[in-house]
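Technical appendix A lists one of the benchmark inputs used to test multi-chain prediction within the project. The record comprises two sequence entries:
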Amino acid sequence: EVQLVESGGGLVKPGGSLRLSCAASGFTFSSYSMNWVRQAPGKGLEWVSSISSSSSYIYYADSVKGRFTISRDNAKNSLYLQMNSLRAEDTAVYYCARDRELAPLDYWGQGTLVTVSS
Amino acid sequence: EIVLTQSPGTLSLSPGERATLSCRASQSVSSSYLAWYQQKPGQAPRLLIYGASSRATGIPDRFSGSGSGTDFTLTISRLEPEDFAVYYCQQYGSSPRGTFGGGTKVEIK
């Protein structure tokens, strides 16, 4: 069974940093691209970042470029999101989700809540 | 950047009725790389439709997708109580990857 489990969320002050993790199991992690998608309270879905299976290709939404860094460790079946210079508008539930090239996000984790507030 | 506009924002229907949700793209979506997701409160989104019209594994056949180019539709033929949720479309054929529409809420009338 495919499982994606996020962790690392919490309350952080504006300007602070947080590192999210996503533990994958039930599939060949190294064969899939991985993504972070977020959802602000009461709002819609916003794609944040993607990383290809071998980390060769990395993409960011303009809203997080220069502040967030996506990475992965295929040996540990894990995906990460390092979030720096956090702002109130980064407050959201962060989901990890897998896909393949030109394919939809077919499995999602349950999400981890990040709250940026003083 | 492709912008996806979903309409209506909210659809108020009764169980057993037909739901028709629209997703319009600002430019043509490559090879119908258009997906639909369902999200219930407190849950992660679930993939319903990909390639504009193919149902994902385990999705009931009352859900169907259609369209191409810039206009896409998700139809729920007869609403079941568990279908009341928010639905999002997403294009995955061009950068930035994973552009989502703003969502349509299907609520009980």
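The interface with chain A takes residues 31, 33, 35, 37, 39, 43-47, 50, 56, 88, 90, 92-93, 95-103 of chain B (CB under 8 Å). Chain B has a mean pLDDT of 94. Comparable benchmark entries are summarised in Table A2.
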